[in-house]
Design goal:
Elements lengths: L1 E5 L2 E8 L4 E5 L10 H7 L4 E5 L16 H14 L5 E6 L1 H13 L3 E7 L8 H17 L2 H11 L6 H12 L3 H12 L5 H4 L6 E6 L7 H10 L3 E6 L6 H4 L1 H14 L2
Parallel strand pairs: 3-4, 3-5, 5-6, 6-7, 7-8
Antiparallel strand pairs: 1-2, 2-4
Length: 261
């Protein structure tokens, strides 16, 4: 565990292993520990970086509104701090949208993209209202009621109980102000669909077969839009296949990383 003071905040992160850099961005409302199965697997061959986003885990909480471009700029500040020039950038759900914005900001430095259980479209009017209402609810009630309500959409109802417990701990441990700021920012996110058609590096698109938040059809659309992409549908997983089915997720990621040379 390490900390860095960057962009006016403290960022908590893990930096493990040596070799080509793999930077992993967690989703909402989680923290860097969601990538533990990948850190354990890939730090043997790669330099794996997993940080807590601002507002989450052990990073600074900044109330208000945090747009995706701010999260993506924090990622760049960290890799610059660590002296990393080129890297593979991967993210799940909101983390995947941060990855897309990262490509928009500093695409030439990215060797490959990993987009897991995410989608590129801008929010609808209904969706914007829903995210803002949820943000207000989290500040008012805390994370526990929301976390218990959505747990078995984040992971499949038949998921390993230890995985479900880990996911619940991450959600209930998140600061309400940090989570609310991210939701307000996501409500106003841009549309990344045109950007995907211009991506010049290879990409891996992964989705859980049972994901209700980002269905397989969303992953198929991203796969079709990206000029150089591979699609992996993980059977028996919902929104977090990297935790629910780590062997399958890791196998797809290892094949992808090997293809980059």
């Amino acid at each position: 565990m390490a900390y860095a003071e960057l962009n006016g905040i403290r960022i908590g992160y893990e930096d493990e292993g040596t070799g080509p850099a793999l930077v992993l961005v967690h989703g909402h409302p989680f923290d860097r520990s969601m990538w533990e199965p990948q850190r354990a697997e890939f730090s043997r061959d790669f330099r794996v970086i997993a940080a807590d986003l601002r507002g989450y885990g052990e990073s600074s909480v900044v109330p208000g509104r945090t747009p995706l471009d701010v999260f993506a700029a924090d990622v760049l500040a960290l890799v610059d701090h660590l002296g990393i020039e080129e890297f593979v950038l991967g993210g799940l759900s909101m983390g995947g949208q941060i990855v897309m914005d990262g490509y928009r900001q500093y695409g030439p430095r990215i060797r490959g993209l990993v987009l897991a259980d995410t989608f590129p479209a801008a929010e609808t009017e209904e969706g914007r209202a829903g995210r803002r209402a949820t943000a207000d609810r989290l500040v008012r009630e805390g994370l526990k009621p929301y976390a218990e309500e959505v747990l078995y959409k984040m992971v499949a109802p038949h998921a390993d109980p230890a995985v479900a417990d880990h996911v619940l701990r991450m959600m209930t441990g998140t600061d309400p102000e940090g989570a609310a700021a991210a939701l307000r920012g996501r409500a106003e996110r841009p549309d990344y669909r045109a950007l995907l058609t211009q991506v010049e590096c290879p990409a891996l698109v992964v989705v859980g077969r049972e994901d209700e938040y980002t269905p397989v059809a969303d992953a198929e659309a991203m796969h079709a839009a990206l000029p150089q992409s591979t699609l992996c549908v993980v059977e028996g997983a919902a929104h977090m296949p990297n935790l629910e089915k780590p062997a399958e997720f890791n196998a797809a990621l290892r094949t992808f990383l090997a293809s980059l040379g």
